[in-house]
Known about the structure:
Layout: H1 3-12, H2 15-25, H3 32-45, H4 50-83, H5 91-104, H6 106-111, H7 122-128, H8 133-158, H9 162-171, H10 173-205
Amino acid sequence: MNFNIEKLFDQYGYEVLFLGLLLEFIALPFPGETTMLYAGYLSYTGVLDGFKAFLWAFAGTTIGMTITYFIGLKAGMPFVERYGKWVLLTPAKLDKTKKWFNRYGNWLVFIGYFIPGVRHVTGYFAGIIGSPFRTFAAYAYGGALFWCALFVGMGHVFGPQWEGVLHAIEHHSWKLAIGVAVTAIAVWSVRKAMAASRRKKQAADQP
């Protein structure tokens, strides 16, 4: 257990989730997943309210992602390449995310939360390529909702075993990302099929 995180929770409570996750998404070093799992554990013990912990985590995540989107939109790639090293955006991380973004686009914003080193730069890239804010928000906020609920929820469900869960996730994070991607695509496909079915039915009902 990272004593610093425990001490921060003792002193500041829910605000640790908000400020810590906001700063993490501006690419400053902060263990977001560890913090959310621990917050879930604290809700298991009754120290925190699990739903409030989720709301603070979700708020910090979405605001942080939104800030990075507008930095990318306004400043562009030259700014990120020049100053990225000051917020841990290494050339290797940037190159990797460029390639992923060219292949997967906005879906990477959604599943990037579960890929180590990727979630910190997807907001920047969405802004840099000029992704419409409404589209970006749909994927970014949807992914944040799932990510925060999952980690706070796992901390609550597994209670004292939360650290074991963290170690398992660290070793199998790519499998988790693939599982999330498959689930997201399946949900999207079902919704698209249902929408098409409704349109077809409405067309058939028209005289």
